[in-house]
Amino acid sequence: MAGRNPDRGVSVSTVLARRLGGELLRMREARGMRQAHAAEALSASVAKVAKMERGLVPIRDPDIRALCHLYGETDGPAIRRLLTLAWTDRERRKAHGWWNQYPQLPAMVEYVALEDIATSIRTWQLAFVPGLLQTPDYARAVAVGAGSWDDPSDIEPFVEARLARQTRLRSERPLELWAVVHEGALRQLVGGRDVMREQLGHLLELARLDTVKVQVVPWLAGANPGMIGSFSVVSFAEPGALDVVHMDVPSSTLWLESEEDASRHGRIFDRIARIGLAERNALDLIETIRKEL
Q1: Coil, helix or strand for 161?
Q2: Which structural domain, as residue segments, surrounds residue 36?
Q3: Which of 60, 94, 128 is the endpoint of a domain?
Q4: Which of 6, 62, 152, 174, CA to CA, is 20 to 30 A from 270?
Q5: Minimal CA–CA distance to 12: which of 94, 81, 79?
Q6: Where is 214: in which H helix or E strand?
Q7: pLDDT tens digits for 199-251?
């Protein structure tokens, strides 16, 4: 979804641009300045500044440097973080990947486009095997079981897109995936015994990749911070430097874009991982469940 020139009146908000715009808005308000001050510094219109702060347009590096100077931001790492965020958003807008073949799946298109430029993902799943680790039959059974499709013919494109995502795990620039899954998700008979047996075998196979780490939170762990629901922390740079949080809720897809939200969910993920089985023990449990089927 490429943002067009704001002067032409059509623009698109993106997750990364909203994160960047929010940072610039926070800096401006902390200095007690109005959008007119920013517009003057950029030799631009107030309308353009408003679009920048709402994440509706890509932002050039010179504009970021000029605004940092105006707002008194002199911290080198902080400025570099904003520049990295702007560059990542511009790359995201330019991308014309395979996911654009699926306009009937708008929430997936947005997520997968970000996943394609991410460097790592930490995901906690309470009820499902993570999408990046699913087999075709498992993904199809999940889609059918959801029962929320207005057009059942969209299920196969959904499955195709889910499988296409998995190429990142074996690509020249492999995505680093750390998946923590609740034991209940591994014992739920999604699609029946044969489907689950194949799914668990596939999970064991992918866990052998150097860039994939799988842990399991067992039933015996009892109450834990993961009971609030599933989420993924998507990283675009060094861990913690540029993260957003993705959550699926019944009525929509939710993005938590602030640094505070990303940091909080990162800490929650770490607490969940600490109570999970060590990787070797987790894989032994998966194999045991598979044999029981």
Answers
A1: helix
A2: 6-94
A3: 94
A4: 174
A5: 94
A6: strand 212-217
A7: 999 999 999 999 999 999 999 999 999 998 999 999 987 656 678 898 876 55
Question: Do 115 and 175 contact (CB within 8 A), yes or no?
Answer: yes
Residues 18 and 56 in one domain: yes
pLDDT of residue 140: 92
Indicate the residue among 64, 94, 124 that finishes a domain: 94
Q: Give the closest residue to 132 by CA, choosing from 264, 242, 246.
A: 246
d(CA 24, CA 16): 13
Burial of 155 (0-12, 13-18, 19+ CB in 10 A): middle
Helix (H) or strand (E) holding 39, with range, is: helix 35-42
Using an 8 Å Cβ cutoff, are 237 and 119 in contact? yes
Cα–chain center distance at 183: 23
Residue with tokens 């990162």: 266
Residue with tokens 């499709």: 149
CA–CA dist 54, 17 (Å, integer): 8
Sheet holding 231-235, edge to edge: 212-217, 176-182, 120-125, 231-235, 243-249, 252-256
What is the CB neighbour count within 10 angstroms for residue 269? 21
Instruction: Please state, in angstroms and as integers, the Cα–Cα distance from residue 112 to each residue in 86, 284, 286, following that order.
Output: 19, 31, 27
CA distance 184 to 218: 8
Burial class (CB in 10 A: 0-12, 13-18, 19+), 57: buried
Q: Give the CATH number of the domain where residue 25 resides.
A: 1.10.260.40
Token code pair at residue 158:
């959904």
pLDDT tens, position by position, 120-143: 999 999 999 999 999 999 999 998
Same domain for 227 and 119 = yes
Instruction: Report pTM.
Output: 0.77
Question: pLDDT digits over 23-75, tens only?
Answer: 899 999 999 999 999 999 999 999 999 999 998 899 999 999 999 999 999 98
Whether the pLDDT of residue 180 is over 80: the answer is yes
